[in-house]
Design goal:
This protein is α+β, with helices and mostly antiparallel strands and 286 residues long. The chain folds into three domains: 91 residues, FAD/NAD(P)-binding domain, CATH 3.50.50.60; 47 residues, no CATH class; 111 residues, Enolase-like, domain 1, CATH 3.30.390. 29% of the residues lie in helices and 22% in strands.
């Protein structure tokens, strides 16, 4: 049993299932990977179901207890009806908590995490912090970036540290999930004008050749200028392909510029160009 369907919960569900363990995921929100684009989450749910992973979505865990054979957990469905589930082991994957410095120092906290200024300095002068301890996103590559920015700022007064804004999120299950920027849901909520370009792996020669036809590339493209607001990939090598789209957002590349960039064939990454062409109304391969 896994409580929580964020990246950690989903990854361990995939790992254990791949080794032949029966896995049930319990998630209070209506989708797996709730922070991801809804279409991506729904595609992953279908894939997990085919793999034999049970997902109880919209279910809240109300009680846990140790039994003779393992663990019992009580869950309530969206209507409040409860049922008891049993498993040999339960993995709780509903978030993380920082291990704060000891020694009597009093730090300013925000939601339990260290608060830092624009130079990554905490409320205690001379003590700096970066990574998971200063709050989400809890990602190794984000922590590494923050640490470099913090250290550069410590030793070079002229250096202006940057805070993390655009970053890739990657989930290492099968199919892989990767994203950067806004989801379609977030773009709608912000009131931005945009269009969507989506291209399926099924239509890629490379994907068919390697037997990895599950998934798609989805781009959220701003209007009227054609900037990339968000990118979402589910499928083989998604976590490798997302870097191109992170660079596109950082450089404010437009739909036209990506379309004009020749992508090698046959590759999985040409799905990025194909998705742009769909958004532009120029698709010729689907």
């Amino acid at each position: 049993m896994i409580i929580g369907a964020g990246a950690i919960g989903v990854e361990f569900a995939y790992f254990f299932n791949a080794f032949g363990t029966k896995v049930t995921i319990v998630e209070m929100l209506p989708n797996l990977l709730p922070v991801e684009d809804t279409e991506v989450s729904q595609a992953l749910e279908k894939s997990f179901a085919k793999q034999g992973i049970t997902a109880l979505l919209g279910h809240k865990t109300t009680k846990t207890e140790v039994s003779d054979s393992g663990v019992k957990i009580t869950v309530a469905d969206p209507k409040g009806a409860e049922k008891v589930l049993e498993a040999e082991m339960v993995l709780v994957a509903i978030g993380i908590a920082p291990i704060l410095p000891a020694g009597g120092l009093k730090f300013e906290l925000v939601k339990g995490f260290l608060q830092t200024n624009d130079r990554y300095e905490t409320s205690v002068k001379g003590i700096f912090a970066a990574g998971d301890i200063i709050g989400p996103p809890w990602l190794a590559h984000v922590a590494s970036y923050e640490a470099v920015q913090a250290v550069e700022g410590m030793f070079n007064p002229k250096f202006k540290p940057k805070k993390v804004t655009t970053f890739p999120g990657c989930t290492y299950c099968h199919p892989q999930v990767a994203s950067v920027g806004l989801t379609e849901r977030a773009a709608k909520e912000s009131g931005k004008k945009f269009k969507v370009g989506k291209f399926p792996y099924m239509a890629l020669g490379k994907a068919r050749a390697i037997g990895e036809t599950e998934g798609f590339v989805k781009l959220i493209v701003g209007e009227p200028h054609g900037e990339i607001l968000g990118a979402h990939i589910i499928g083989a090598d998604a976590t490798e392909m997302i870097a191109e789209l992170g660079l596109a957002i950082t450089l404010e590349a437009t739909l036209e510029e990506i379309e004009a960039t020749i992508h090698a064939h046959p590759t999985l990454s040409e799905a990025v160009k194909e998705a742009v062409e769909v958004a532009a109304g120029h698709a010729i391969h689907i």
